[in-house]
Specification:
Uridine Diphospho-n-acetylenolpyruvylglucosamine Reductase, domain 2, alpha+beta, Vanillyl-alcohol Oxidase, Chain A, domain 3, single chain, 494 residues, eight-stranded antiparallel sheet, globular, Uridine Diphospho-n-acetylenolpyruvylglucosamine Reductase, domain 3, five-stranded antiparallel sheet
Length: 494
Amino acid sequence: MLTLDEIVARLKEIVGPRFVSTNPIDKINYQHSLAYGAYKALPDVIVRVESDDNGSHPLAKVLSFANENKIPIVAKGGVGMGISSPLKGGILLDILGMDKVLEVNPKLQYVIAEGGASVYSIHHALRQHGLMLPNYGSYGPAVVIGAMVTKGGIGYGMTRYGWIADLVIGLEVILPSGSVVRLGALANAGTEFGPFQKWIHLPDLLGLFTLSAGALGIISKVCLRAIEGKREWLHDYCHSFRRDELDNVQEALLQLVKGEMVYDIHFTDRWQYHWPMEEGLYDKSKIPQDGWFFLKTILFARDQEESAYKEKRMRSIYQQQGGVEVGEIAAKGMGAKAQEYGLHGWPDFHIMGPDGWCSSVVRHTGMFAVTSKMYPITYLKEMYDLDEAAKKECGLWDPEHSPQHDSYVTRDLAIKEEYFVFYNPYDEEDVAKVRRWMGKVQEFSNQRGVVWTAPTLSTKGPYPYERLRNVYDLVKEIKQLIDPNNILNPGTLY
């Protein structure tokens, strides 16, 4: 077994001495994730991999070395949801230097980028050709596409187009052995036709690495489907419902998603607007006093005729269920004000406006904890009621903790739910309240069969895996076949 000094020396030979660090401060900085205190493991060594202008890089050599010497290795892009925490120590791989957008094909409408390219930069490159990813994240430049694919990235547009993973038509993946595998459209990259569709004359293996939490391979390239898009084609609306009208909200969402005409619906509650209203960002007189649920809706329409038709259908459905239109939030909390920023418009904060919902909340509260999972729209009322009861029982249902519900409505007739609680991480009593609440959420969520999406299933107990029965057994067999030394992100799959 190699000593740490020997490991560091070999890594410096592979990537260069500037890109290897065992500095304690670096380790703490790289440890940070949106999971905050859930993961406190530190790596033994940090390695940064950079690509040249042609997309060449030493990532395969790093993986081959780690595999040969049975060194755990975890890839980290941006901040992350905890999935990039080195639970078993070893190497933490910084892939932010693999950040090139390699190709934009405006005729066949696809983009190829390296795994460390930010989603922000991919959108910027697409905009130069009048294109967009129909799933539009609002996370700024920190989020990288490889992580979005391997963990299941979300964004605005899920109501019509699905997850980022639904847009993937090709992958290049480096296995623990150092072997490079090209899947889907990228398997066709060396031909005269080049990439054009994900289906090739082999079984589809893209999904093997999608949502794999980095435990089966490291994504080095991604090929994504794009669509034509302009900022002026997105039209913003907001409708509110009373607290006792959640059944009506469910019915409206079902009708709108089934109609396949809505680009995006974001489901929030009044807690999200409490502090922005207190700060005067919104005119309270223009927001219904009894409005508790707010459905921020975006229509995608290329001309006035298409816009008029979709707008009429959307408003009819909301009004039939008792919804009240709230222009104040549509104008100030969504995209209109964001157009003032830059020639190209469309900044990453499109939905939430330049100030963003989080900034005003954090000014008055603190750090946030969030659960993240999927369940059917038909269970929205039951799940919201359960969460409200749990927060009240744990002493979190107040402005200080801003216990807001912020969720995406998906094309799968599901809710990509995010329950938030803001808390003081330096107050042990406050932290205990949050932990108790999260335990209750885990219990009632696991009982009903939710699909967890963040940070990792390793925090949710064994049941989410075990209820998958032999599917989970098969995944473990594949993991053993691909990664017999269990070096890739050990602890995320089992």
